[in-house]
Amino acid sequence: MSFLRRTLAAAALSLATLAPMGFAQAADLPVKAKAAPELPWFILIDNRVTYSYIFDAAQPGMFSVNPNGTVNAKTTKQVYSFTHFDIWRYGQNFFTISLYKSDHNDPAAPCINAGVTITFAAANCAGASEIYGLFRSTFGWNQIFNTKAFTMGPLQNISFEVGMDANTENRFFGAAKRDIVAGLQFEFALPYKGYFNAAPLVYYEFYNHNSFAQCGSGFSGAIPGTTCLSDGNTKFKPTWAVETNYYMDLGFLPEAYQFFSISGRAAWYGKKGTDTEPLPALGAVNGVYPTKVEFNSEPIRLTFDASKAIWGPKFSHFVDIWVAYRYWQNKFGLDHNAPSAACSVTIAGVTRPSGACTESSLYSGVTVKF
Length: 370
What we know:
By secondary structure, the chain is mainly beta. It contains three helices and 19 strands. A twelve-stranded antiparallel barrel has the order 1-4-5-8-9-10-11-13-14-15-16-19. A hairpin with a 5-residue loop joins β2 (64-65) and β3 (71-72).
């Protein structure tokens, strides 16, 4: 995000180098001093829409068994997203909301798995739909305290960061995630107008839902608070998180081919209790296991600036075509090696990981700025 800020700063610096020349030529004229114009409240506003495709997504608990006995825990997902980014007087705001549409291997209710309803009757349910929103906001120390003290070497700024995530879906699981984050963000400069941000945060998922753990669902025990949840609502323990992201133009390419950039992100979320917190981890008794550190990443995305290539620099990043690799281990904090219903499968009396709690996929899309 700091790339845009530095671009504006570079432009301002270019104008500043011209100012002394003008004043020198008119030094003998009486000039009334003028106060520097105040920055507008919003320095930049950027809105984009994206269509993307995840080739081999995974959804915990969702899989099918092939005729040869192998397990297919992969699902394709189409993603429709709106993203807003702005730079304002004291920091930056980022908001994105996405609709994820799965194929039949990740079905909507009343199916509890591919081709199976809650009564275990055969059915061909439509692929699930999920809406997921994420918001992050920073408050820069340089801006708040009107100083450059927090710019040292590659460090460009330190900021307070706050944010939240929320989702809703039409799977039988009925997830309704609500979490908040708060902490610091450290912004570093990379070559070719790039940046790297690292944010150590406190993460608190204070609300979610799990129909499989609800008392009376037929998939859990009968002791509220011990083997089942009376209403299916979960509440996890606060934990730590580290979120990072980077961006860099491939400025080392010949000028005629400078339409490419790379970017990426990686985030770690600490253990947050059991996978159905506040239920205790009783293993086979209630199917509840401790959570593990979650790793959610898109380590690299290669972007082709199609609008710049076709219409010139004035239209840079109005139309981007990109391809990325996506890797998500212990999805939602679920232990991918645990013998849980979410992450394992039992065939012919043998229980083994199903692969549904690890996502490793090619990811591609088109983004349009408006």
